[in-house]
Amino acid sequence: MKTRIRNSCTAVFLATLATFSVADEEHKKGDTATATKESHHAHDGAHGHSNSAAGRPGNPKKISRAIKITALDIKYDKPEIQVKAGETIKFVVTNTGKLRHEFMIGDMEEQRQHAEMMKQMPDMVHEDANTLTLEPGETKSLVWQFTRAGKLEVACHIPGHYEAGMVSNVIVSKRK
Ligand SMILES: [Cu+2]
Questions:
Q1: What is the Å distance from ligand 1's center to 124 Cα?
Q2: Distance of CA 166 from the midpoint of ligand 1 (Å)
Q3: Whether 160 contacts 118, CB under 8 Å
Q4: Cα–ligand 1 centroid distance for 102 (angstroms)
Q5: Strand, helix or coil at 54?
Q6: What percent of the chain has pLDDT over 90?
Q7: For residue 9, what are the domain limits?
Q8: What are phi and psi for residue 94, nearest 5 degrees?
């Protein structure tokens, strides 16, 4: 089992290694491009992921509802999260495991890029508008507004965790 995971990691890593630095650059440019597209929401405080296909940082005064999620070794207690486009969700995340875990909201491309970065710098601790890092026993919250219907993921990119299944599918349904 371990070997299989390591092999698939290596395959993904090798496949993307060549394009990593380019991808990283595009990531930065991509944020700018998205910000331009949704120009009215640009520069709302958080750096980097403040605008993305996944949505944007939510206004803590306009929370639609809260969702509790627990990080375990090595998975989330909820394999799927259902939200509606337009909703502002306060995620309250508790790490009840013995390992450090992440909680990152993003589309598949953002997840892939973050995974790649974590492979390069495994000890890097991320606290971003769309990402929490939780030490064992910690509870943190993140307010996020989902802006469009589609499929996203919540994932942990501590090396090996995503591959072990530490991912929750986020289904964003159309605004009613
Ligand atoms: Cu984890």
A1: 13
A2: 6
A3: no
A4: 6
A5: coil
A6: 64
A7: 2-173
A8: -120, 130
Number of domains in the chain: 1
Cα angle value 54/175/64 (rounded, 5°): 75
DSSP class of residue 175?
P
Cβ burial, residue 28 (10 Å; 0-12/13-18/19+): exposed
Give the pLDDT band (50/70/90) at residue 44. very low
What ranges in the chain are assigned the alpha helix state H?
2-17, 20-37, 108-120
Q: State in Å: Cα 74 to ligand 1 middle.
A: 6
Q: Give the Å distance between the CA of 150 and the centre of ligand 1.
A: 24
Whether the predicted pLDDT of 82 surpasses 60 = yes
Report the SS3 class of residue 53: coil
The CATH number of the domain where 13 resides is what? 2.60.40.420
**Nearest partner of 55 among 34, 70, 71, 82, judged by Cα:** 34
Work out whether strand 65-72 and strand 75-76 pair parallel, antiparallel, or are unpaired: antiparallel
The predicted-structure confidence for 100-114, as pLDDT tens digits, reads as follows 999 999 999 999 999
